[in-house]
Design goal:
376 residues; F-box_dom; mainly beta; five-stranded antiparallel β-sheet
Length: 376
Amino acid sequence: MDDGKLSAATNLPDDLVVEILSRLPVRPLRRCKCVSRAWRDLISHSHPRRRLAQTVSGFFYHLHGSPPPAAVDHAFAFLPSTSYATTDTELLDSCNGLLLLRCCRASSSSSLSLQPKPAPSSYAVCNPATGKWVEVPEPIYAEGTFGLSSDYLQGKRQTRLAALAFDPAVSSTRFHVLQLVERDYFSFPLLSQNRFVVEAVEIYSSETKSWVVCDFSEWRLGFQVTCTGQQATYHDSSLHFALDDGAVMSVDTKGEACRVTRVVPVIQESSAGAGFIGRSQGRLLYTRRGAERWTLRHYTSALDQFGRTLFKHHYGVVAVHPDGNVIFLFDGCRGMLMAYDMDRRTVRDIHPLAEASRQHPFLPYVPLYSLEALSG
C-alpha cells in the first residue's frame, strides 16, 4: 500500500473502520493489523472486537473417570443453579459460538427396584460469551445418552446423538436442534456389539418453538443408516453426520431433504466405524481411519473429492480449524492434544490432557459476542 492510500486509510473514523472490518473473515482481518498501529489497537480492543470475526479460542472436552462436580463448571456459572447444578449436564455440541447442553434432572430410585428410574432431561442452548441461555421445550422422543447399551436393551426407539445448527450470518436469533431417533439392533448379542439404526430425525426450530419428526420412510433411502459416532457438523443449512459405512448423511434444518453421500468407495470400507467430519474455510473435511493410516477427503457443495494419506491410525481426529489448514488430534496413549499442519505436513504437541475422555467429542469454541443471539 503506497503512502497516499495508507494515509487515507489511517485517517478514517474508527466507527467506519470497524464497519468495514466487521465484514472481513478472520484471516484478512489479521492481516489488517499490519496497516497501522491504530488499526492494530482497534482490532485488539475488546469493545470493537465484539463486532469482528473470531477464531477458535479453545476446546471444551469431557474428563474421564472424575467424580461429578458439586456445581456447574465455572464456564457455565450463569446457568440457574436450581435447575442445572444438582444433576449431570452433558455438553453435546458447539456451533458458531453457541453450545448445546443435555441437562438431566435428579434421578429417583424405588425401594422395590435396584435400578434408579430414568432421570428426566432437557436440552438447553447457551452463549458463554454473553451469559445468555434458553431451555428447549421437551421433544417428542425422550432425550437419551451417549449410546450406553443399557438404554437400548428394549429395542425401542431412543435418541442418542443431538446437534446444534446456528449461523449468525443468516440469522443471529434463530437456531435448530436435531436429534437422531434410533433403534438398537444387536448384531452379536454375546459380544454386545450394537448397531444404531437411524429411523427418524427430530428437529426443533427456535422460530416456531416446536419439534417436528421426519421419518426416514418418507425419504425412501432404500437402505439402513447406521451411525455410532457422537459428532456432527453444521454447514450450508444442513447438519452432516458421519455414518459407519464410509458415507455422510446430510439433513437440512427444515426436514425437507436427506442426502447420503458415499465418500469412501465400498471396496475400501473397513471396520473402523464412523469417520470424522468437520468444517474449515467454507468446506467440509472428512477423515476416516483405515487399517494403517488416516485419509483426508474434502468436498465442496459440488461434492468434488480427493483423498490423501495423512498420519498414523492410533491418533484420533477431534477437530479441524475453521480458518486454517490444521487438524487437531488426540493421542490416547500419551493423553496429548496435537495439531497437524496440512501444508507443512508436521505434527506438534499442544497440551497434555491426561484425563480427557475419548468417549466424548472435543468441541472447538469460537466466542460470539453478539447480544442478539438467543434474544428472540
